[in-house]
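Our consortium's second objective concerns turning raw sequence data into structural hypotheses that experimental partners can test. To show how far this objective has progressed, the report includes one record in full. It was chosen at random from the queue rather than selected for favorable results. The single chain below, 459 residues long, was entered without modification.
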Amino acid sequence: MFLSELQSVLAPYLISATGADVELVSATADSREVQPGWLFCAIKGAVTDGNRFVPNALAAGAAAILTDSAELVCDGVPVLRVRPGTGYQSVARVAETFAGYPAKQMRLVGITGTCGKTTTAFLTREILKAAGEPTGMIGTVVYDVGNGEEIPADRTTPTPFLLQELFSKMLKNGVKTVVMECSSAALDQERTGTAKFASTAFTNFSRDHLDYHSTMEAYLQAKKRLFFECLAPNGTAVINTDDPAGKGLAQELTGKCTLLPFGAKGPWKTALPGAFNRYNATCAGLLAQSMGVPDDVIAQVLATTAGAPGRLQRYNCKNGAVAFVDYAHTPEEITCALDALRPECPGRLGILFGCGGDRDRGKRPMMAKAASVADFVWLTSDNPRTEDPMAIIQDALAGIPQGYANLKVEADRASAIRSAVVACRPGDWLLIAGKGHEDYQEINHVKHPFSDWEQLQSL
């Protein structure tokens, strides 16, 4: 591919193009991957500025540079300069162009919302597979690229070059439909490029990711892009209208697409516990229905499927207690998980949780307040990242009500899990919240092997 071919692709973002019209072998946004003849995409990211690594890319043989910096100078090397603030979008366009637009040869199903994306995606995938549809999935837990091949997920919606690589593998493996969790950051950055979705879903909306979006309104607007910018002209939107934000979205979408609103009274039964899982099951059922799956197939799968790993995943402890590993990491998710377990819990209902470091500090006391409806609380670490674990815990403690007696604090998560289980009596249930399927704990930029599930199995 010649550099001039990319100019038309990048026309919405391009400021200037200088240098010779060179032929490019491939492209990347990681200077460590650059090979001779490649285009290096140097953009200012949320964590670091890729323009810092241009010298490394040139030393590795980069034939051209794409940059969002007004100051970058590369003598003798062609440069495509895009407007500041459009770096992510430009990289997404480059990635899909070099990949040959594989997503446009498959049917895409996109799911967004604060909670429920993963379970809804898993259920939707299982329904489609039961109907005989070769289906792949991209989401928080795993990237299923079809033909029995699964790749551990790095993030909910991958960065553009990895995303296009996954799409290409799916196409090669005969996948016809891709079920995707679409994060707000990915939608904001337009990681899926120009691909359009046949069906989309909105599960619900509550506080999260304000470290990225700054305001709730910006967070909501990012999610709405799935419906107003990414939905195919003849596409379907499945919307939870019991949720206030979903109700407003449905009103905005009326007359613009096929609209399938839903609420608490879903037409299908589910094997999963809790009111929130009835929403997830109904959402998945309607998505499948929009793609022509018969109702009897939908009903059969929803009545028997166990859901996603790390989502109220049950473990029977040796002392007669029961633990549930769950990904709940917002106040609303903690409330939903405890509400789901309370009606069936034969003894005391407890919770063990922590708050993530380098993220929205404002939700920490809110999470603690939500947790305090449990009969006992163990406050510990989640992924402290670069923060002091005890400082995070102190932030959360502000949300524990005055006089709450059954509180224990243990910063070491492994010790906390062990102590909490030992303290349980036969018949007690313990919700271990926050990390779910994750198999690591991130401390000072290092991901240390750690799994709540494996911790339970070791007791």
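The partners drew two points from this record. The two ends are 57 Å apart (CA to CA). The longest strand covers residues 231-240. Both points have been shared with the crystallography group to help prioritize constructs.
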